[in-house]
């Protein structure tokens, strides 16, 4: 990392004794640094405007004061939380030991505590968000089934015509299956573009890849790049899907525990949650972002994500009533 000497100076990191590139990040580039004054995580920001990152990092100081487990960013010279070196932006946070634990490896009590923590994050952001919450509720685009079908056809045209690999064959079959789902469920499109329920500042990507756990608890909530105003139900629904939608199925028991924990702090109604879950299902039905990323970047991680999420979408669609009941349970 060519910027390291400059970063060490402007952030006051001391002498660097060791560094490790963390290859598991999907978007930004990250390193673990061992220095004469401590252990740090350095992030090179690649997919978010630097002004937005500065705004978001400033929120963490207040959240940490309230006892929410977030790492407090180090200020550079002049108090800036993001330093620009060689045309790139970097931020530095104290290193936190821990593991990224997928949702199905949590106990039911841990799943419940995770839901309560998300609600506490929402409450903290209500007091310390980076700006006022707009009076007008946020809108969410609801893609038309015909538009999504055209996108599937376009993606099919980008795959090799001779289907060279097993992956090409699996993706082609999945896209044809998706077109069938779109045709059969086109009439289930959610009504309107204003989701139900309360809204406010939310983390934006609250899930196991951005949570470090120690001794059965969350030690750090990471990656605040997507902090934004959204319906609370949207983040509850999405977090539960990413955490507990594993191996092509939902762990409904843990979804019950997670939502029970959340609603013990913020009382989302069953109607609000039902609307959020249906909108999330429709978004997954009409979206192909993982496959688009795979084809644009040739990154196999996104290709595998597409196939895994495709299996979950089919399972979810066939058991929609059971999934809705799990989210609504108390």
Rg to the nearest angstrom? 21 Å
Percent of residues in beta strands: 15-25%
Average pLDDT level: 94
Tell me the overall shape: globular
Query: Low-confidence stretches at least 5 residues in length (pLDDT < 50)?
Result: none
Q: What do you see in this structure?
A:
By secondary structure, the chain is α+β, with helices and mostly antiparallel strands. It has two domains: 4-94, Phosphorylase Kinase, domain 1, CATH 3.30.200.20; 103-140 and 187-328, Aminoglycoside 3'-phosphotransferase, Chain: A, domain 2, CATH 3.90.1200. It has eleven helices and eleven strands. The chain has helices at 4-10, 50-65, 108-128, 145-158, 166-184, 232-244, 252-263, 270-286, 289-297, 300-318, 320-328; strands spanning 16-22, 29-35, 38-45, 83-85, 88-94, 199-202, 211-214, 217-221, 228-231, 245-246, 249-250. Strands 1-2-3-5-4 form a five-stranded antiparallel sheet, covered by helices on one side. The protein starts with a helix and ends with a helix. 34% of the residues are buried.
Per-chain topology:
Layout: H1 4-10, E1 16-22, E2 29-35, E3 38-45, H2 50-65, E4 83-85, E5 88-94, H3 108-128, H4 145-158, H5 166-184, E6 199-202, E7 211-214, E8 217-221, E9 228-231, H6 232-244, E10 245-246, E11 249-250, H7 252-263, H8 270-286, H9 289-297, H10 300-318, H11 320-328
Antiparallel strand pairs: 1-2, 2-3, 3-5, 4-5, 6-9, 7-8, 10-11
